[in-house]
Amino acid sequence: MTLEPLVRPARLRPGARVAVVAPSGPVPVERLERGLELLRGWGLDPVVAPHALDTHPELDHLAGTDENRARDLQEAWCDPSVDAVLCARGGYGAHRMVDLLDWPAMRAAGPKVFVGYSDITVLHEAFALRAGFSTLHGPMVATEVFLKDAATQQALRSTLFEPESVQTLGLDAAAALIPGTARGITFGGCASLLAADAGTSRARTSARGGLLVLEDTGEEPYRLDGILTRLLRIGALDGTAGVVCGSWEACGPYEGVRAVLADRLGGLGIPVVEELGFGHGPSALTVPLGVPAVLDAPSDGGRCTLTVQVPALV
């Protein structure tokens, strides 16, 4: 089965109501407030979900109970007055709540903007596979990269309001690890989360015709080797047309990371671009998932890019 384009949500307009949810880890209050001020400065009307500032009564690595985190996301999604759902942060916890969501009800509510990365990868995959909706792998409201990096802020703002202006993605540092050109439907996210999701009852069973978006944080090269090897062994990357790598923050010396990427992905015989500029690094470009795109990795050292063939939002 070949990947097909997913249903894209509507772009945002000034005054749009956006819900901020915390599906994973606990949210620092001060950083959230600063993020909300940025959104207000864009002319948006952010509302914080009822349990977004909770902490689990026994497990302090979670933002509240699984049931409450799921309820916040579902209620925001099914609320017709909400135009977008933005995640406050990643961390850990989406795996625990993803199956508590009423996916038929969320699918019936229709598509809307959904933004996050890291642990939110689990939800990106669920929206793609269970609802058929395109989502945005992008910065989260209460994270330092969103609060401090102007390029990160501008990339998200442009994607939300004028998506046709940011259809070609890629920082100057992007390079061809394995040169070539590929076309496909974007999917993916955080490598360790994709590996953790693989093999579960609702996991993706085919990557044919897909352009894999890949990044991670805090995984030493040997652990990254294990993550990619697991994905390869279970066939999760079979048929992938190309791989677009972002940042590998705190994953050890990059020379070691690059060696693992070349070793594990080189055998696929497809183009691979490194350091495109998304994920946990100092800049976090917004990458649309579920849309047709072209990956260009010139062999002559020219600029490497990912160009989405349609605007991320309609």
Q: Which H/E pattern describes the elements? A: EHEHEHHEHEHHEEEHEHEHEEEE
User: How much beta, percentage-wise?
Assistant: 15-25%
**Spans where pLDDT lies below 50 across 5 or more residues:** none
Q: Taking all residues together, what is the mean pLDDT?
A: 96
Principal-axis shape equals globular
* Number of alpha- plus pi-helical segments: 10
Rounded radius of gyration (Å) = 18 Å
The description of the largest β-sheet is:
8 strands, mixed
The helix/strand class is alpha/beta
- Helix share of residues? 25-40%
The termini sit apart by 26 Å
> Quick one: how many beta strands?
14
Question: What strand order characterises the main sheet?
Answer: 6-14-13-8-9-10-11-7
Mind explaining what this structure looks like?
The protein has an eight-stranded mixed sheet with strand order 6-14-13-8-9-10-11-7. A six-stranded mixed sheet has the order 2-1-3-4-5-12, sandwiched between helices. The protein is built from ten helices and 14 strands. The chain has helices at 29-41, 66-78, 94-97, 103-109, 121-131, 144-148, 150-161, 191-197, 221-233, 254-266, and strands spanning 17-21, 45-48, 84-87, 113-116, 135-137, 168-169, 175-178, 180-190, 210-217, 242-249, 272-274, 287-289, 292-297, 305-308. The radius of gyration is 18 Å and the shape is globular. It is an alpha/beta fold.
